[in-house]
Design a protein that fits this description.
With 487 residues, the protein is an all-alpha fold. Among the domains are: 1-116, no CATH class; 267-356, Tetratricopeptide repeat domain (Serine Threonine Protein Phosphatase 5, Tetratricopeptide repeat, Alpha Horseshoe), CATH 1.25.40.10; 387-487, Serine Threonine Protein Phosphatase 5, Tetratricopeptide repeat, CATH 1.25.40. It has 26 helices and no strands. The protein starts with 18 loop residues before the first helix and ends with a helix.
């Protein structure tokens, strides 16, 4: 596998992506970290000063830390960041890889630090990575690999909520969603080595910040089949398809995920299976897979959420005493970094205060069935219910939001609008997320209908809510949509 510019070693053995290191890079992406480390150690024994080793060591560490959430390993490995950066700084100044690899190492650590709650340090790494990449672009404008991570940063900075754009300007960070996407497309078209990574970044940005097109969903579904030995692609496709409300398709891919001892342990895949089973209403099976996740996972994210979901598995089947014991676990385990864990903690406190009513059970059933794309089941769950079936304003608001989402997903967008509008009315002057969520979906509907003024008004409405569990993700999506609309 010869990728041209990677053979820099002909002139300088201090930086060479040898064929063995290229194999190691792709083994890391498959999450076969032991095999990758073997290849890296073989290279180290023959060419210990090869700067590419530093980048690949760091790349492997990032994947290990993001998947394992091993805090002791994070504390130990993070001490290597400065020495690795120092070593890369000593590479030839006239090599386009010198700044590129320093930027990549900083971004690896930024992602790991965000996972472990070190946001301030992560932000400094991102800022320094951005400056290095921009400098590399100016010095080596035809060096395509620069644009993989620079494209990512341009899109992310371009998606920053409006009230924070002054911060990016002060720091000298320029966002450009369309420009960033063009940069990622350039890498996919021109760079065989970094193509897959750029493709994954592109799809991730569309899935979690922008919106996926039908063509991109087809592309996503084809990726695991094209590389059946790539665990990362199976995880990636499963999680994104679930987010898109295509859980049955996600389950088919998850069933084929390679999970032998050749791969890094990945308990989160059991959590994803449990989520799908919960959506399908298979509560006992879901409970078992949440158990497996809790037993094998050494990290801290999604633990609160997993006990909350086990609570639901018992509560929705009227095993209330078992449910009560589980809700007590929610407040004792894990952290509240993810929005799911924040929601679980808030629900547990509400439940223990006696403020949760049995009338909410049908709303949970409809919510999870709808989330998974099991729309007939969601529709049946709500059955003959109407707003007047619920006594609490919050439940009335949720009913309208759920009904609206089900109709929207069934292709009846126009009919969904009155339900979203009603949910917004019912959530005025509250911290309930159904209002901003309704406004966001209305924005998407009007955007597809080419009703630009209404779309802009709806997205701005979604961002106007001051405090709720999903504020970060809803604001980011609304901001990205407004940028696409030129607003």
């Amino acid at each position: 596998m010869n990728h041209g510019y990677l053979e820099a070693g002909e002139s300088d053995t201090r930086l060479e992506f040898t064929p063995r290191l290229q194999r190691a890079y792709f083994e890391i992406q498959k999450l076969r970290l032991d095999k990758a480390h073997t290849l890296l150690d073989q290279e180290r024994s023959q060419n210990p000063d090869n700067g590419a080793l530093i980048y690949l060591d760091n790349y492997a560490d990032m994947y290990y830390l993001l998947i394992s959430e091993d805090k002791a390993a994070f504390d130990r490995l993070s001490e290597k960041e400065d020495s690795r950066l120092d070593a890369l700084t000593r590479l030839p100044e006239n090599s386009p890889f010198q700044r590129l690899l320093r930027a990549e190492v900083r971004l690896h650590w930024a992602f790991a630090k965000l996972k472990f709650g070190s946001e301030v340090s992560a932000c400094w790494d991102i800022i320094k990575a951005y400056k290095l990449l921009e400098e590399n672009r100016r010095k080596f404008p035809t060096f395509v690999p620069t644009f993989k991570s620079l494209g990512l940063l341009h899109v992310l900075i371009g998606s920053v909520p409006e009230q924070y754009t002054w911060v990016t300007k002060v720091l000298g960070l320029t966002g450009d969603i369309e420009g960033g996407l063009r940069e990622l497309n350039l890498v996919q078209a021109k760079d065989p080595f970094f193509r897959q990574e750029a493709q994954l970044i592109d799809l991730l940005l569309h899935a979690y910040t922008l919106q996926l097109s039908t063509a991109q969903i087809m592309e996503l579904k084809a990726m695991p089949a094209s590389q059946p030995d790539n665990l990362l692609l199976h995880f990636f496709a499963t999680s994104v398809l679930m987010k898109e409300g295509r859980s049955e398709e996600a389950l088919m891919i998850l069933n084929k995920a390679p999970r032998t001892s050749d791969y890094i342990p990945f308990p989160f895949l059991d959590y994803l299976r449990a989520e799908i089973l919960l959506q399908k209403g298979q509560y006992d099976q879901a409970y078992t897979y949440y158990d497996r996740f809790q037993r094998d996972f050494r990290g801290f994210n999604f633990l609160k959420d997993s006990y909350f979901k086990q609570f639901l598995c018992r509560w929705l089947t009227n095993r209330n005493e078992e449910a009560k014991a589980l809700i007590g676990r929610v407040v004792k385990v894990g952290k509240t970094i993810t929005e799911s864990d924040q929601y679980a903690e808030k629900f547990a406190e509400t439940y223990r205060a006696g403020q949760v009513k049995d009338e909410q059970k049908v709303l949970f059933e409809a919510r999870y069935a709808s989330d998974g794309g099991y729309l007939q089941e969601a529709e049946q769950a709500l059955g003959n219910y109407s707003e007047t079936s619920f006594s609490e304003t919050s439940n009335k608001a949720e009913f309208n939001y759920r009904r609206g989402r089900i109709l929207q997903k069934m292709g009846q967008s126009t009919q969904s609008l009155p339900y979203f509008e009603r949910s917004i009315v019912l959530t005025q002057n509250t911290n309930l997320y159904f209002g901003p969520s309704s406004a966001l979906q209305m924005g998407y509907i009007y955007k597809r209908q080419s009703n630009k003024p209404q779309a802009i008004a709806s997205f701005k409405k979604a961002m106007s809510y001051k405090k709720h569990e999903y504020k970060n993700s809803i604001d980011n999506k609304a901001r990205a949509a407004l940028s696409e609309l030129g607003a």
